[in-house]
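Cross-posted from the bioinformatics board.
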Amino acid sequence: MKLICIGRNYTDHIKELENEKPTDPVVFLKPDTSILLKKQPFFIPDFSDDVHHEVEILIKINRVGKHISKKFAHKYYDDIGLGIDFTARDLQAQLKAKGLPWEKAKAFDGAAVIGDWLPKKNFEDLNNLNFSLKKNDELVQNGNTSLMLWKIDEIIEYVSKYFTLKIGDIIFTGTPAGVGRVIANDRLKGFIEDKQLFSITVK
Ligand code: MG
């Protein structure tokens, strides 16, 4: 399985990193080895002094598809989740400056947190979901899917032009503003609406 990640999908986050607003979605992949195992702490890798949390809404693909039009995209997922796209920001900045791929900064072991899943039928409107991240019980990121530049079904249409989607693939849909550094002993808790979907410790 693969993790397909969208970057720069919220205007307020594009501003905070002083990135250009993209004309097409920014897409990158993480391997399955980047998934943080359940109930394990996240270990800050020794090659970074500036690992950031990026809380993101996740989509779990439930059937095989290629060239999916956005009209039919809703048939390709039943579950919505929440995760973290951990990013070694210092390393990413070096790679970006040289025009190099981001994998070393984004795809390392443990860099993908995947929380519990919720049936999408629990929600009236997936394009109006509140989600948030608390660090040590303080609210640090707060988003709403209505603010995505590319909505869930548009993301599926776009990425399936390039990659065959397979059962179990997961899409990370981008982070809102408020990304920041994590340090040892931080505790991160993620929520969709009032429901807590993960709690992890940083080491
Ligand atoms: Mg991200």
